[in-house]
Amino acid sequence: MTLRTVATTPFNDQKLGTSGLRKRVPVFQQAHYLENFVQSIFDSISAPAGSTLVLGGDGRYYNREAIQIILKMAAANGYARVLVGQGGILSTPAASCVIRKYQTYGGIILSASHNPGGVDGDFGIKYNGSNGGPATETVTEAIFALTKQISQYHILDAADVNLDTIGTTQLGAMQVEVINAVNDYADLMATLFDFNQLRALLSGGFRIQFDAMHAVTGPYAQEIFVNRLGAPVNSVMNAVPLPDFGQGHPDPNLTYAHELVEIVYGENAPDFGAASDGDGDRNMILGKGFFVTPSDSLAVLAANATLVPGYKNGLAGIARSMPTSAAADRVAADLGIPCFETPTGWKFFGNLMDAGKVTLCGEESFGTGSDHIREKDGLWAVLFWLNVVAARNESVEAIVRAHWAKYGRNVYSRHDYEAIPTEAANQVIQKIYAQFPELAGKSYGRYTVATADDFSYTDPVDGSFSSKQGIRILFTDGSRIIFRLSGTGTEGATIRIYLESYEPDVAQHHLDAQDALSELIAIALELSDLKGLTGREQPTVIT
Ligand code: G16
């Protein structure tokens, strides 16, 4: 085995997005591309010699090849040990769990999350620190800076490591330990939820349907729901992880999880439906013929947290991303606990959790989690919901309607316009900016603009400042329209429009969100001239 130092030159497109670096597979397959980025991670974090790294991915195409390269680079960069998920697979929450449980220096997670995979699909890579959470903006900026000046990387010339058998292999001076993270993760869940109550529920006729979307959560869901909680085997569908996710789009929403949606809205529907995404950190919750918006989900879980063993002593606080609805704020106010509003991106929650300021966090993008780890956690959210259902002995729909009756309903929707040419997307944003000076006080039908601004955030723990985090049009009655460009897409730009209004009147709670928000939708399109500037008549996805 020889240690090689390879001369290289920078790529100019390795800027990290909302969650790590995401590009098409052929981009990552270019000579030196992955290596440059990995060396930049290693150089920026400068782990002390003898450190342990966690490594795994969501099993998408190029996962295995990338893991072999990273292992050889870790060996050449002085790591003493790497813990790898069996088959190279680790869900994102399981990676966070393992980093914390074995107190490693950090971890590298290979995933492009909910983006499609396959030979021409997406691939991604991100670094998580020793708290188990995504690297902060300060760290991601430092990694990006190094990618622009890299001139060499270190790698060990060695044979590939067997990733499929549990056990330890020597790679140069480094040990590679293949672990069964499914058990680590399932054991953690058993400490948070009432598994006896859940077993009684799931083996007692309450029917669930979980869609793993041929992505990473299949083995985890089978272990937890079927093996440990006694649900029938067919409760978990699309359970085998595939490198191209069965040619699906592993994004758990009403558009892409349509197979599950048809079951849950069909005849003889199960009592509960749920899905998770490519890397297992997102969740969608459905009752019988009923969709729970992620924003409402966070609020409902917060309001019912003391029914769940792991949270029986209450919550320190709640955090949500800015575009997420203010439903959770109402619960926080009622509980007398703080509620934090952060930019989009799970990395902004880590400091708040580490400082003990918040227990639950959530985002409108189907992410919910708590301080049990430092990532959002799809199966955790499903178990939390099931525990609340079991404890209250009520349906999902009944629980949400009771919640709205108590707190009022934050009617919410997000419209995505995907793969817009970057120039047209920038024109849309500029068009809105240009109107800022004249917006305050302007009326559109029954809505009057209170303020218009660009969201910025000062981290209350380390004082770091993040600007340009989304355009907010705030109306006098508390309604909001937010415009943001996605930081996770790989083709052109994705414009996201987030719409929210508040409805205290129970008699109006039956309304479909699109109908209830129709005026705000029209205002958003008028303000942005989105149709004129992009030629798009309809959103690609509505959630
Ligand atoms: C990532 C981030 C989330 C963010 C989401 C959408 O999720 O971790 O915090 O809300 O992207 O970001 P954007 O609106 O910029 O596309 P994931 O599940 O893709 O890792």
Task: Please outline the helices and strands.
Blueprint: E1 2-7, E2 21-24, H1 25-28, H2 33-45, E3 52-57, H3 63-76, E4 81-89, H4 92-101, E5 106-110, E6 122-128, H5 137-147, E7 152-157, E8 167-171, E9 174-179, H6 181-192, H7 195-202, E10 208-211, H8 218-228, E11 236-237, H9 258-264, E12 272-276, E13 283-287, E14 290-292, H10 294-303, E15 318-321, H11 327-335, E16 339-342, H12 350-354, E17 360-363, E18 367-370, H13 378-392, H14 396-407, E19 409-420, H15 422-439, E20 443-444, E21 447-454, E22 457-458, E23 465-466, E24 471-475, E25 480-485, E26 493-503, H16 513-516, H17 518-528, H18 530-534, E27 541-542
Parallel strand pairs: 3-4, 3-5, 4-9, 10-11, 10-12, 15-16, 15-17
Antiparallel strand pairs: 1-7, 2-6, 5-6, 8-9, 12-13, 13-14, 17-18, 19-26, 19-27, 20-21, 21-24, 22-23, 24-25, 25-26
Helix pairs in contact: 2-3, 2-5, 4-6, 6-8, 10-11
The chain binds 1,6-di-O-phosphono-alpha-D-glucopyranose.
1,6-di-O-phosphono-alpha-D-glucopyranose is lined by residues 18-19, 113-114, 281-282, 344-346, 363, 365, 367, 486-488, 496.
Mean pLDDT: 96
Helix content: 25-40%
Number of strands: 27
State the low-pLDDT regions, or none. none
The N- and C-terminal alpha carbons lie at a distance of 52 Å
Label the overall shape: globular
Question: Any idea what the CATH architecture of the largest domain is?
Answer: 3-Layer(aba) Sandwich
CATH topology of the largest domain: Alpha-D-Glucose-1,6-Bisphosphate, Chain A, domain 3
Structural class: alpha/beta
CATH class of the largest domain: Alpha Beta
**Number of helical stretches of at least 4 residues:** 18
CATH superfamily of the largest domain: Alpha-D-Glucose-1,6-Bisphosphate, subunit A, domain 3
- Give the ligands present: 1,6-di-O-phosphono-alpha-D-glucopyranose
Strand order of the largest sheet: 2-6-5-3-4-9-8
Largest sheet: 7 strands, mixed
CA radius of gyration is 23 Å
Whole-number tally of structural domains: 3
